[in-house]
Each structure stands twice: as structure tokens, then as C-alpha cells.
Fold:
Amino acid sequence: MTNWIDWTAPAALVMSVGSAHAVQYLSLAEAQRHAFPSATNFSVVQADRIWRAEAGGRVVGFFIFDRVIGKHLYIDYSVALDPSGRIRQVDILQYRESYGGEIRSPSWLAQFVGKTNSSQLQVGSDIRNISGATLSSHHVTEGVKRIMAIANRLK
Amino acid sequence: MRTGSNRIRRARPLLGTFVEVQVGGAPQAEMNAAIEAAFEAVANVHNLMSFHESGSDVSRVNAEASARPVRVHPWTFRVLQAALDLHRLSAGAFDIAVAPLLQQLGLLPRHRDHRTWLAPSQATTEAIELLPGERVRFKSSGTRIDLGGIAKGFAVDRAIDVLRSAAIPTALVNAGGDLAAFGPSPHTVAVRDPRDPRRLMCRIVLGNEALASSGRYFDPFGSSEPVSSAVIDPSSQKRSHAALGATVRAPSCMLADALTKVVMLAGPSATALLDHYRAGALVVSAGGIVRMTRDLQSTVCLAA
Structure:
């Protein structure tokens, strides 16, 4: 029979997660390559946002980069479409999460502005796997819907 | 898992959360292919068991199983079998038929076909009948199921299966905090503090097993999206206030996921159930007291 033991740690002993947590999953170039392994060229349709994936002059699909605000900070993600405009895959490129009151400070937020996908954030990156409060992907789902609404114009 | 070493870490929006797959120890091309297959397995579970997708097994069963037996995918049938066992062994604390109640509380959307509103007391897992040939029938017309409390863990298990059969040496799959891992060296997982989700409460060293957490906190960040961690007490039909949070370690993520809901409601009295499933738990009571089963003691590194 299992026994239960009490752990009555003072609140002050509970460790803080740190001010922010960021995970870089894929760079933009890596995400493009993974979404369209056969592509030999990515031609710009809209700067920093939409590319046409081409293989030997043939269009094999479209690659779209977007950024949505998560709980407090930006989530970078990409949507790969096949030539007919159907979703091939959605990947998270970079995930950022903040904790505590510092998010109210504009100067703290400013450190994320203009970050390219190749400049990886290192804050709190030792925290690797977290179990607990479920984080909703609602904002990304909404973002993908918006992208699909404009996808017709790409064909 | 550091980038640059022989490890890959990817995330995709699935199951209403961010599903992360980490693998290591194999050639890049093999790991990339295995990750794709693992995400595909998770997406399959999502498409079969989502309450929100109109074409899912769950939606078909909810729409038709009161009138006639509905054939479901073998995976859906397996989850239903496990859910019925858990319902019986937990004396009703685990109940996948609280969907009408969740709708009433605004935690699940109301579908257009729900013209009549039925008293939630009519709908419990006991009204679900599993028939040969992977068919499902409801004995009561008011029954609606929601696999939100168990399917996420099952999806993690399927992804782990895919990675194992692809001969990946080490891996971890994390679906919004419900996770499972395997490999020669253990993985360390940080557990959020349900008393303050911005903080971490402890670290747990995980071997070839699974871990899941539930919190009483409902949508602490003000998103409009319902959070699946909301736990309903089937006996009182209200949101549970029995515990602030629970974390369960179990042989499979499906069990860990489902057992967090029981432990939230039953607290330390869930002992026999935990023993039955060879699981351990850590519970934060409403008063903020942390208790854990003795088997967890050696794997939990308390914060300090």
C-alpha cells in the first residue's frame, strides 16, 4: 500500500523559473528546407514573410512566416502550403514565454523586437521540459486561419 | 537537448496545445523522418478524438450512439475501454461523460445538433456500452463524451511508440505538460507550482515512463480559450476545489493524464487506484500543502 509523505516547504524556498524562457526549434532556413526538401530555390513573394518554393523552375509550394502573441510574448511559426494552397505543415520556429511583472516594462519587451530567427535567445534556456499549466495554442491556430484566408491569392 | 549535438527538438500546434518532440542518438535523416511520423500519430489522435472536430470519432459517437451502435477506430476503442476501467476503479471520479456539464459551464462549445438540454446527472460513463467489432452505443440519449482528460496522454504514448519502433535511442514527447520519455539516461522535468504557475515547484527525474499534471487554476493568463486542466467533480457537478494541483507518474502517459483528474478529486484516498496502475502522485492541497507518494520521494528534487 502506498504511503503519503508531507512536504511543507516554506514558500520562499520555491525556486523561480527565471524571467523568461525561450526555445529555438528551427531557423527560418531550416524550416524552409524541412518543409520543402526538394526545393532548389525560395523566391520572395513578400519580404520576410512569404516565399515561393521552387524545384527546377516548378512551384512546389509556398512558405509563410508569421508571428503571433502568445501569453505575453511572440511565437514565431511557419505554414507550408502545397501548390494548391492546402496546409502541408505548421511548425513552431521559436517559442517565448515570460514570467512575472517584468512584461509590463516596455524596455524589457524591446529586447525581443527585431530579433531574427538566427539570433537565439538564451534566457532561461536551461529549463528544458516543463509539466504543468497547459499552454493554449489558440493564438497560433487563429494565425493559421488568417493565413489560409489569404492563401487563395498566392496560387 | 542542445542544438548542435546529435539531438533534434521540434514543436507543432496540436491537441489545442504545443506538442514537442525531442530525439537523440541517431543519424539526422532518421531522426527527421521519425519526428514526422511521431507528429503524424499525434495528429491522427487529434482527428479521431477531438470534441471540436465535427468529423472525429467523438463527434460521430456523440451524434449517433444513442440511436445506433457506432463503429470507431481501434485507437478510440482502446481509450474508451481504459476510460471505462478508470471510471469503475475510481468509483466514478473519472468520467468522460461530463461533456454536457462542461458545455453548460462554457468549457466546451455547444454543437448545433444539441437542440435539447439534458440534466447532466443523466449522463455518466455507465451509460456507455462497448460492443464487439469496436462499436459504441449509449444507453441514455443524454450521453455526450469528451476524451479531453485522457486523449492527450494517449497521443503522447502513440508518438513514443512510433519513435521506439523507428529505433530512436532516446526521446521525450511533451504535449502541453503531459509527457513521456525513454532512453538510457533519465530526463529531468520541471513541474510548475499550481500555487503560482509562474514558478517551478520541483524537478522530477523521469526514466522510461510518463508524467502529467493538472491544475485547478483556470486559464491564469486570460486567454479566451478553455483550458483542458479544468477538472469537474462528477458527484457535485462543479469545478473541483479539492486540490490546487496534481502531478502523476505512471507507466503510460494515458494513465498519467487520466489519473491526475482522479487525484485532484480524491487526493490521498486515490492510493489503491495509484497502486493498481503502478503510479505515483504529488498533490498540492487547497491549503497549499504538498504531499507525495513514497515511491516519488527518490525522484523528486525539491526546489531550494
Chain B touches chain A through 66 residues (CB under 8 Å).
